[in-house]
């Protein structure tokens, strides 16, 4: 299996893990809820795809996930604080400007990054997230309940069961993940979305029932573009070839070197 050396840095009281590979324009990858850099980006072939295309690829393990420290306090998992981790990693690596790509929760984090440090973010790719960027924690109550129940056979909600199975397969800390989903699902307001000025590619599978509709989100973005992935749900979109080719095309059209 294609696995890079795990590295660590300190920020905001957390020891945070990351991987990097390749040379060229940097792109920071931010994984989804209950996943990790390895599972979200290495195993589906994103590291290979992007490094072969000439990019320096960096993937962070968000706080509460992967090899990074965990906490059981929902207050430390706000999108702003998780975005600050990703920003701190760019500064830690001496990167002044980068592309970013987040998936699902990672896309929400990416949106908050684009608001906070637009001078650092050259482009953003929001994978697996449409208008549910504007929905908060109530949307995820079933997942919290599914994570905290001892016997998974008692789970009746389909979305809750989906994420419980994924968390169990990843051997995640379910208590930390529950705290994360409570804290990290702060919604973004329409006016905030309109203030995102960098080019953004929104990528959603046509069978994705978790992301929310992508077209209205693209309409709110000042430089939004839409890529839909046929016949893919929230889980299967991640490694799709159409997704990868669409991202490569988007990045080629928005090179960092064109603007210094």
Structure overview:
With 260 residues, the chain is of the alpha/beta class. 37% of the residues lie in helices and 19% in strands. The protein has helices spanning 37-42, 46-52, 79-92, 105-116, 141-148, 158-169, 174-184, 190-194, 214-220, 241-253, and strands at 7-11, 14-21, 25-30, 55-60, 98-103, 121-127, 200-205, 224-229. An eight-stranded mixed sheet has the order 1-2-4-3-5-6-7-8, sandwiched between helices. Helix 3 packs across helix 4. The chain is globular and about 55 Å long.
Q: What keywords describe this structure?
A:
alpha/beta; eight-stranded mixed beta sheet; 260 residues; globular; 8 strands
By secondary-structure content and strand pairing, the structural class works out as alpha/beta
Helical amount:
25-40%
Instruction: Give the SSE order as H and E letters.
Output: EEEHHEHEHEHHHHEHEH
Largest sheet: 8 strands, mixed
Compute the number of helices.
Answer: 10
Q: Enumerate the spans where pLDDT stays under 50 for 5 or more consecutive residues.
A: none
Alpha carbon gap, first and last residue: 36 Å
Large-scale geometry? globular
Strand order of the largest sheet: 1-2-4-3-5-6-7-8
- The whole-angstrom Rg is 17 Å
Total strands: 8
Query: What is the overall pLDDT average?
Result: 94
Task: Give the percentage of residues in beta strands.
Answer: 15-25%
